[in-house]
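Hey,

Quick one before I head out. I ran the complex with nicotinamide-adenine-dinucleotide overnight. Inputs first:
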Amino acid sequence: MARVLVTGGAGFIGSHVVDALVAGGAEVVVVDNLSTGRRENVPGATGLVQRGIEEPSLLEVFRRQRPEAVVHLAAQSSVAASMRDPALDARTNILGAINLLRCCQETGVKRVVYTSTGGALYGEPTYLPCDERHPIEPLSYYGLSKHTVERYLKLFAQDTGLRYTILRFANVYGPRQDPYGEAGVVAIFASLLLQGKAPTIFGDGEQTRDFVYVEDVVQACLSALERGASQAYNIGTGTQTSVNSLFRSLASLTGYRGQPIYGPPRSGDVRHIALTPQKAATELGWRPQTALAAGLERTVAHFRQARAPTGRGGQR
Ligand SMILES: NC(=O)c1ccc[n+]([C@@H]2O[C@H](COP(=O)([O-])OP(=O)(O)OC[C@H]3O[C@@H](n4cnc5c(N)ncnc54)[C@H](O)[C@@H]3O)[C@@H](O)[C@H]2O)c1
């Protein structure tokens, strides 16, 4: 794809997607309201339009840029924030996405890659690892809003012929993840441990997550732009890692000798999750390449270099 519009391109995952697209020779424009994203994350030569995806004037951006494809990553992406304010979550994640899809329709965008969640979509799994046929029973408004747009996409595609791919990410981690938010347990823990501070584990820490490295997720986005055909794909490793085990790995990498703080479990969080990437392997040719130990090492190296100041404890 020669001209790609990336929403949320100033954020954690989006900025890595932008880097890869630019490296591949694409003309990229980023639309981001910088609510959690950072201008410094967008490479100098790439256009950054500071705008909310829910704003009617988004259409002007599409008319001006005429993108052939859109990678849609802009979102309210915190489970905890969605539980506190479901309306805010829905405004960005549902109404913003509908506005975006209308812009795609009006300006003849050929393909959309939509980044959904696998971690917050299936609810408390009846089997693990979850495949894409697992019943969908989100426990959080975030999971519900992300899934609702999957359904909108299907109808829009029937109506307009738009081609789309849905990527259901597991717990993505890596350099540039925000260590100050409520989502992104690896970034939050790594940043605090490097400062010798105890992170908070919500619950007993035996809850499990499926951690997938950001560079692998970027490859999934590129494959979806090339090959996806109106399907949903899990983008995970299929492996469960407990939060306690993650803490131990990060403590060892950062040289932290203390204990974590244990707090009450958070509403909206599932107990166990892992996503099988089998369908993505067969149909997109995508497999995770980065072992957790290697990915954590690179992530800690990034935060060590950034020497991030104090953040708040928490986990996704
Ligand atoms: N990080 C994960 O583990 C994970 C897991 C599953 C799904 N996802 C999805 O991947 C996408 C990217 O997540 P991330 O972790 O990079 O989050 P992020 O918060 O770093 O990035 C989101 C970006 O969207 C921008 N944004 C937010 N609201 C906006 C609005 N109304 N208009 C325009 N821009 C807006 C933010 O400024 C930010 O740059 C999201 O859609 C998220 O739901 C992430």
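The first strand starts at residue 3 and ends at 7.

Talk tomorrow,
K.
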